[in-house]
Amino acid sequence: MLTLFVLVPLLVLLLLNISWRALPRIVPQAAVLVLGFADVVFGLALPTLPVNSEIPVLSELHFGLVADDLTRVFLVSIGLVICAAAFVNQESMTTERAHRNFCSLLLVSLIGMNGAVLLSDFFSLYVFLEVTAIASFILIAIERGIFAVEGAFRYLLLSAVAAMFMLTGVGLMVFTIGDTTFSAVHESLTIANGSPLLLKMAVGIFIIGLFIKGGLVPFHGWLPGAYSSAPPGVSVLLAGIVTKVSGIYALVRIAQDVLVSDPSLSMILLVAGSASIVVGAIAAIGQSDLKRMLAYSSISQVGYIVIALGAGTELGIVAATFHLFNHAIFKSLLFVDSASVESRLGTTDMGKMGGIGAKMPWTGTTTGIAMLSAAGIPPFSGFWSKLLIVLALWKAGREGFAILAVVASVLTLGYFMVMQHRAFFGKPSTQLDSVKEASAGYVVPAVVFALITVLTGVFFPLLKDSPLSFLLLNKGLSW
Amino acid sequence: MNDAIVEIAMLVTFVLMALWAVLATKLLRAVVALAATSVLVTLLLFRLDSPLAAVFELSVCAGLVSAIFLGAITLTQPENEAEVAVSAKERIRRYWYLPPLLLLLGVALLQVALPDVPTTAAAADDVRKVLWTSRHLDLLGQITVLVAGAFGVIVLFKEARKNER
Q1: What's the rounded Cα separation, in Å, for the pair A324 and A3?
Q2: Is A143 inside a domain boundary?
Q3: How far off is chain A from B120, nearest CA to CA, in Å?
């Protein structure tokens, strides 16, 4: 069954492109929405689905795919963000051809991300992250604006550097133990046969590649340009899920399955996470462009995920995964809202938005919810994941980093308040008289994401015993 | 001994090509240098008994990515000679510390006693067999990469040319 997560989108992609001239515009859009929705539904129902060996044809095509609760969290997030990106794209892409190209590339991205979260091998992970990266840089430059091409070019360059690191790591793994599966590398590191130092170096080099792809400080240079210059639907996709799957998912997977509670990895993650939190938050304060501010905010929020992994405990991994899910939702929501504003004003310059909340109440309200969640204000989902992160750090004896996480949260609230004040609050100027609420293609995903943010936060105390307990990796931890 | 000399020569050339790629004043030369770097990585991966990684590096990084770079360059406007000279000066001012830093790192690495490389790695033939017969998923991934690359060429370049006409 797991094979279908990769094969079906690939088949649909080929079918759409063999016959797309004859198909109406709605078909590729519907295909993306159905496949995204399938990710959500099958991600939720994964434990009850038949395995490949029970299905005649698929038993021959197992491909070594595996799924656990971490995979389920990602499948659900991928599905939700892909659907949101498709909705936004439907509204923002002007020509039919651009819309169809966008849908095809969304499917390529879906194949890459589904594959990446289902496999258990460093080399295969590299291959599928490349699939996602290539789809991403084409998507960024799809409208061929000068800044978009520049953003895509930067992303491409740093992706190439990241790929070099990852391949070198993989090469060293094959050289030292002749195997690149997570389990074999973990086993070789724990029983300390062969050359654990060289193998550790190999994993370390692979991780540098992930840091670049995840946009962590000091490898974050490509991220603001790519997010802010991309078309609105692409920004939602990149900020919501692509950088998380490309860089952070693999870090969580390595922390969970390969370098379990490794002190050297913990320190690297703590330092890189802290630097990202602080640099991202400070840089976000000085931005006047909404999308650039959100991009720097993403760097800061990803820092929280990485610092939680640095705790080196099970609670740290749960906290990181839960914040990852929450961030995927509220950051996608913020980029959908920025797309809404851009669709009405034609700009994302916050100086030209003053008081737009009164003209676009749904957009203003959902932005407020996402902002409060990002800043870790109760009862929204971000509050709980940030609380878990602080608890995980404190319990692991990393009190200094826990305090830094709390202080940086105040900074987050600060730059989001500045954003709300400049863009949404106050009396709208006369230039905004003709501005109306954004169309349904923007409002529907924004409301759905806002509801998820509110409900996950309000019902968090019940989450542990609900069918959604996989969001906490079913660890049954007490905090 | 001969193997060691070949590998050292390859690594030195690799570093020189990588430096050329980042220091070249013309984008086209930078792409050629990057492709050459990829080819050297490919050769090194073959020598490290990672044939599929090597093939992938060659086909995607040296082939496909270079093609996309070249395409992107066709969309850019070249600088005139005066601008190139200013850029070169600026680059030297900003990155003067990189060559000595690299040298220092190299010296430091030579001082570190690297552990003995174990001899447990599978023989080249075995690795090839394993990679080519039991890793269909990677091949599926490569096919998708090529499909994505084809989309890239169509979306970014073919249609751009059509619009220009």
Answers
A1: 25
A2: no
A3: 6
**Residue A154 domain flag:** no
- Count the domains in chain A: 1
Pairwise CA distance, residues A276 & A310, whole Å: 13
> Residues 342 to 401 of A: which have CB under 8 A from any B CB?
none
> Do the domain assignments include residue A265?
no
Q: What are phi and psi of A181, to 5 degrees?
A: -75, 150
A62 within some domain? no
Question: Tokens for A476?
Answer: 């049954």
What's residue B122's pLDDT? 47
Q: Which residues in chain B touch residue A172, judged by CB atoms under 8 angstroms apart?
A: 48
Q: Residue A444's domain spans which residues?
A: 283-479
Nearest CA in chain B to A131: B145
Q: What is the DSSP letter of B23?
A: H
SS3 per-residue string spanning B61-121: HHHHHHHHHHHHHHCCCCCCHHHHHHHHHHHHHHHCCHHHHHHHHHHHHHHCCCCCCCCCC
Q: CA B128, CA B13: separation in Å to the nearest integer?
A: 27
96-115 of B, contacting A, C-beta below 8 A = 114-115
Complex ipTM above 0.85?
no
- Give the model confidence (pLDDT) of A378-409 as tens digits: 889 999 999 999 999 999 999 999 999 999 98
